[in-house]
Amino acid sequence: MSATIYVTPEAMATLDVIRGLDYYDRCGLSDDPQTGDVSQKAGYYLKSDTKMQVAVLSIGADIALKLTPSDQATYTRHVSLPASLRGCLFQHAPRLPDGYAAIVKYWSGDTVSKKSSGAAYYQPSQNEYMVDLSVLETELDPETPSALGGMDDLLSEGVVVHLSGLGTLSLALQPDQFLEIQVPVYLPMLGLEQESVRSTKDYPLDASQRGETIFIKIDDIRRSPNPDAIWIDLLRWESLDYGFFY
Fold first, then answer.
1. Which of 3, 110, 118, 136 is the most buried (most CB within 10 A)?
2. Does residue 180 sit in helix, strand or coil?
3. Does the reported pTM lie above 0.85?
4. How many Å is the maximal CA-CA distance in the chain?
């Protein structure tokens, strides 16, 4: 069972346009008079909805609580984007939060990239280790059966959002109600350069930036492996589908 990330109709329209497109194809949309430049539209920096379950929030949905950067005291108590979880995280990363693999899979689904894609070279500097890539050498021999099952799993690959204390926060709410969360889009950490996304700098959470808005259902929070510690592999940085090369 997986959670669903709900978005606005505008964000879903953007996701529909860019679905299946790589970096170059997305850039090329600016030359298409039917689409134009979609990089400034809602939904552009959300990770692929081909892996993560995404749906449009129903008209009239009951939004019980909002977490927005305009209320910094409340927002920073519940929302963070840790530097140690930006980039490609493999299963034996030394500083993974407890239960990370199950939680991020519940909320985000499988990764878009394959674990054999070169992602091992894009681990966050605070959470990297020597991933054994020797199994990839066997792929060069057509007589050797695939051994990728023996390679460490890739757990997440984008900019991960940590939501803290939502289980407690939603105790008095109804299962069919929703929580609205605005996530700032900080462009210097979402571009092509891996040095930015892999840096140890804090991800700014101020209200001066544009943002992506998502909605999560209270029932999904309660079904999460740990309702008070939620990890969503939510934002795409441009190298994610540009290609991991070393």
1. 3
2. strand
3. yes
4. 60
Per DSSP, the three-state class of 185 is coil
Report how far residue 59's alpha carbon sits from residue 99's, in angstroms, rounded to the nearest whole number.
Answer: 34
The residue ranges of the chain whose pLDDT is under 70 are: 49, 137-149, 194-195, 241-246
Question: Is residue 18 within 8 Å of residue 29, measured between CB atoms?
Answer: yes
Give ∠ CA 209-215-218 in degrees, rounded to 5: 140
Burial class (CB in 10 A: 0-12, 13-18, 19+), 174: exposed
Q: Are 209 and 182 in contact (CB under 8 A)?
A: no
Taking alpha carbons only, the member of 94, 91, 92, 106 closest to residue 53 is 106
Q: Which two tokens mark 97? A: 């939060």
Measured CA to CA, the distance from residue 218 to residue 174 in angstroms comes to: 7
Token pair in block for residue 201: 């700098």
Whether 155 contacts 111, CB under 8 Å? yes
Measured CA to CA, the distance from residue 83 to residue 27 in angstroms comes to: 27
In this structure, the dihedral spanned by the alpha carbons of residues 13, 16, 17 and 18, taken in order and rounded to 10 degrees, is 120
Sign of the CA dihedral running 44, 50, 51, 54: positive
What is the total residue count of the chain? 246
Alpha carbon distance 79, 166 (integer Å): 10
